[in-house]
Design goal:
By secondary structure, this protein is α/β, with parallel strands linked by helices. The protein is built from 19 helices and 30 strands. The structure holds adenosine-5'-monophosphate-propyl ester.
C-alpha cells in the first residue's frame, strides 16, 4: 500500500512516466485505495472552461479510506497524540479505531439533525481532536465542510457562512491560546445574527466557560454524541463530488471558496504526504499548522490519515510557556518529521539556542517549511540547529488551490539548495511564462509560475461562481493554471519562489488581499480612502502598510484615529490582518485617470525615498514628497 518513492532515480523515472502517461500513472496510484465502484474515465479536462474531472464514475467515501481501511491492521495504532496548550496539561491520544467510532457517532448525530449529502457545514474550532472528528463526520455523510480559521472575526465568519449557505456550524465555547482563553462562542453568536441559513450549532465544551446556549439552536457536542452508535454507513460519493470548500484571499473582492473534490484530493494528498516527508511505518509526524488553513486540511488530517500515519496535534502556540515549546514536543513524542512555517522559525531564532539544545531532537529525520519563501538565514538556522545538519529541509511550495504540495524535495532523496523549493512532484508540470505568455526556456530568468497539466487535487471551481475561478486562474494565460507567484528555475531545474506578483500579501504565511484590508479600513468613520501594500518584515515575511486618507472634517488626534482604524480591520477580518503600520495621508498618488500608483507606495513602504521610476503620469507629484517625508 506504500506509495513511497525510495530513490532519486526512481523519482526521475516516475516523473517521466507521470508526464508521458499521466492517466496510467495516476490510475495505478488511485487503484491502491478502496473504491465502491471503479472509475470509467481517468481524466477529462480543459483549462478554458475550466473543466477538470479525475476518476469520473468512481464511487468512494474518503473516510473509509482513512479510517475503515486501516481498522484491521492498525486499529490500535495511535492516529493522533494531542498536546494541550499548557505544558503540564493533560494530553490525550486517539487510536484509529477510537477515531472511527467517534466519527461514526457524530455522523449519526448529524444525520439525526437532518444533515445530508451536499449540505454545507461550517467548522470554527480550536486545535482539538473534536475538530478532526467534525471534519471527518462531514465527509462520512457527504456534507461539505467549510473550515474557518478561529482567528477570523465574526463578520468574516458570517461572510463565509452566507456564501456557502451553511446549515450547521460546529464550534466550541472557547479556545486556549498561550496564557489567554478566547471566547469563540460569542463570536459565532454574533455572526449568526446575520446567517439565516444556519439551523443549528454544535458546541464542544472546551474551556468549560458555561456559555449561554440558545435553546432552539445550540446543542452540546457531548449531549448529541451520547447513545449514538459507533458504526455508521458511509455515504457513497462520486469522485467529483465536493469534499470541502476553503475560503482564501485573492487580488480582488471577498475571499473565494476554493472547492476540492473527493477522489483526486484523496489520491494526491496521500501520495504527496508519503513522498515529501518520506513517512515510514511507525514514524511520528507533526505539522504545526492550524486546521483552518489548507496545510492543516491536507497534512494534519487527510494526507497522514490516508497513509495510516501517527501524528501530533498541538493546541497551543510556539512561545508558550517558553520558546522551547516546539522542541520539547518533538522530544516528548519523538517526532520524526516536523513541518512548520518560516515565520515560526524566524521568531524562534531570536530566542537563543539554550531553549533548543536542552531537548533531544535526534528523532528528527525530515524538517519541512511551508507558506512563504524561507530566507537564507532562517533556512540555515533550521537546518543546523533543529535538523543538526542531518535532516533534509523540504521547502514545500503549494497553495490552497493546489490541494497538495507541488514543488519540494522528497525527504533525503533529492538534492536541496537553501531557499529553493526544488523539483516538481511527479504529475506536476510547472512552466515559467513571460508577460506575453511565452514559456521561458532559459535558466535563471524570473517568470510567472504556471502549471500546464492538471493534477488530481487542482481546484475544480470557486463555490457558487465558476466564472471567478476561470478569470482568476485560467484567463491570464490560455491553457495554463496561473499561480499568482513569480519564480526562477536554475541550471539544475530547481525552482525558487520569488513571491506573489498580484495584490496578495503573505503575512506570517497567512494570505490576504490588499483590497480586502482596504475594504475593512474604508468602513471606518474617519477613512475616506486607503491603499494597502506589503513590505519586508523580519519575522512575518511581509508586514501590512496602510496609507489612509482621513476625513478632514473629523478632528481627532491621530492615535485615536489609528486605533479606531485597527479596530475596523479586527472587526472586518480579524486581528491577524491588523496593519503593522498606518500612515495618515492627505491623498493617495494617482494617475490622471484615477488609478492609485501602488508601485510607488510599495517602494515608500520598503523605505525608498526617491527613485520611483516613471512618475510622469502622476496627477499631483507633490503628494509623493509629502508621503515620503512622513513615512514610517
Ligand atoms: O506565494 C506562495 C506562498 O503562499 C501562497 C499560497 O498561500 P495559501 O493558499 O494560503 O497556502 C499556503 C500553504 C500552502 C503561494 O502562492 N507559498 C506557499 N509555500 C511557499 C510559498 N512561497 C514560497 N515558498 C514556499 N514554500
Amino acid at each position: 500500500m506504500s506509495l513511497r518513492i525510495t530513490s532519486y532515480e526512481e523519482y526521475q523515472d516516475k516523473y517521466a512516466q507521470s508526464v508521458n502517461s499521466p492517466e496510467e500513472f495516476w490510475s495505478e496510484i488511485a487503484e491502491t485505495f478502496t473504491w465502491k465502484q471503479p472509475w470509467t474515465k481517468t481524466l477529462d479536462w480543459n483549462f478554458s472552461e475550466p473543466k477538470i474531472k479525475w476518476f469520473e464514475g468512481g464511487k468512494l467515501n474518503i473516510t473509509e479510506n482513512l479510517l475503515d481501511r486501516h481498522l484491521a491492521t492498525r486499529g490500535d495504532q495511535v492516529a493522533f497524540y494531542w498536546e494541550a496548550n499548557d505544558i503540564d496539561g493533560e494530553g490525550k491520544s486517539i487510536t484509529y479505531s477510537e477515531l472511527h467510532a467517534e466519527v461514526c457517532k457524530l455522523s449519526n448525530a448529524m444525520r439525526e439533525l437532518g444533515l445530508a449529502k451536499g449540505d454545507r457545514v461550517c467548522i470554527y474550532m480550536p486545535m482539538i481532536l473534536e475538530s478532526v472528528v467534525a471534519i471527518l463526520a462531514c465527509a462520512r455523510i457527504g456534507a461539505i465542510h467549510s473550515i474557518v480559521f478561529a482567528g477570523f472575526s465574526s463578520n468574516a465568519l458570517a461572510d463565509r457562512i452566507n456564501d456557502a449557505q451553511a446549515k450547521l456550524v460546529i464550534t466550541s465555547d472557547g479556545l486556549n491560546r498561550g496564557n489567554k482563553q478566547v471566547d469563540i462562542k460569542s463570536m459565532v453568536d454574533e455572526s449568526l445574527l446575520s446567517c439565516p441559513s444556519i439551523e443549528h450549532s454544535i458546541v464542544v465544551d472546551c474551556i468549560h466557560s458555561n456559555p449561554e446556549m440558545k435553546s432552539d439552536r445550540d446543542l452540546w457536542y457531548h449531549d448529541i454524541m451520547e447513545g449514538q452508535s459507533t458504526t455508521c454507513e458511509a455515504e457513497i460519493m462520486d469522485a467529483e463530488d465536493m469534499l470541502f470548500i476553503l475560503y482564501t484571499s485573492g487580488s480582488t473582492g471577498k475571499p473565494k471558496g476554493v472547492v476540492h473534490t473527493c477522489g483526486g484530493y484523496m489520491v494526491y494528498t496521500s501520495y504527496s504526504f508519503q513522498n515529501v516527508f518520506q513517512y515510514e511505518e511507525g514514524d511520528v509526524f507533526w505539522c504545526t499548522a492550524d486546521i483552518g488553513w489548507i496545510t492543516g486540511h491536507s497534512y494534519i488530517v487527510y494526507g497522514p490519515l490516508l497513509a495510516g500515519a501517527t501524528s501530533v496535534i498541538f493546541e497551543g502556540i510556539p512561545t508558550y510557556p517558553n520558546p522551547g515549546r516546539f522542541w520539547q514536543i518533538c522530544e516528548k513524542y519523538k517526532v520524526n518529521q516536523f513541518y512548520t512555517a518560516p515565520t515560526a522559525i524566524r521568531s524562534l531564532m531570536g530566542c537563543g539556542l539554550d531553549v533548543v539544545n536542552c531537548y533531544d531532537l535526534s528523532s528528527l529525520k525530515v524538517i519541512g517549511s511551508v507558506g512563504e519563501p524561507i530566507n537564507q538565514e532562517a533556512w540555515h538556522w533550521y537546518h543546523d540547529n533543529i535538523g543538526k545538519k542531518n535532516c533534509p529541509v523540504v521547502d514545500t511550495w503549494w497553495q490552497t488551490e493546489t490541494g497538495g504540495i507541488m514543488l519540494s524535495g522528497l525527504g533525503n532523496l533529492s538534492p536541496m539548495h537553501p531557499t529553493h523549493a526544488g523539483y516538481p512532484l511527479p504529475g506536476i508540470q510547472p512552466v515559467l511564462l513571460d508577460a506575453e505568455g511565452n514559456e521561458i526556456i532559459e535558466n535563471n530568468q524570473e517568470g510567472y509560475l504556471c502549471i500546464k497539466f492538471p493534477w488530481p487535487s487542482i481546484l475544480r471551481t470557486t463555490y457558487g461562481d465558476h466564472d471567478r475561478c476561470k478569470n482568476v486562474y485560467f484567463s491570464n494565460y490560455d491553457n495554463y493554471y496561473f499561480t499568482g507567484d513569480g519564480a526562477k528555475r536554475d541550471e539544475n531545474g530547481m525552482y525558487r519562489i520569488i513571491g506573489r506578483v498580484d495584490d496578495v500579501i503573505n503575512v506570517s504565511g497567512h494570505r490576504f488581499g490588499t483590497a480586502e484590508i482596504e475594504d475593512a479600513i474604508n468602513t471606518n468613520q474617519y477613512a475616506i480612502e486607503s491603499a494597502v501594500v506589503g513590505y519586508p518584515h523580519d519575522i512575518k515575511g511581509q508586514g501590512i502598510y496602510a496609507y489612509v486618507v482621513i476625513d478632514s472634517n473629523k478632528i481627532e488626534d491621530s492615535a485615536t484615529i489609528i486605533s479606531s482604524l485597527i479596530e475596523s480591520v479586527s472587526t472586518g477580518i480579524g486581528k491577524i490582518a491588523k496593519p503593522d503600520k498606518i500612515q495618515l495621508v492627505t491623498g493617495l498618488p494617482k494617475t490622471r485617470s484615477g488609478k492609485i500608483m501602488r508601485r510607488i507606495l510599495r517602494k515608500i513602504a520598503e523605505g525608498e525615498k526617491s527613485n520611483f521610476g516613471d512618475t510622469s503620469t502622476l496627477l499631483d507629484p507633490s503628494l509623493v514628497e509629502d508621503i515620503v517625508e512622513k513615512s514610517i
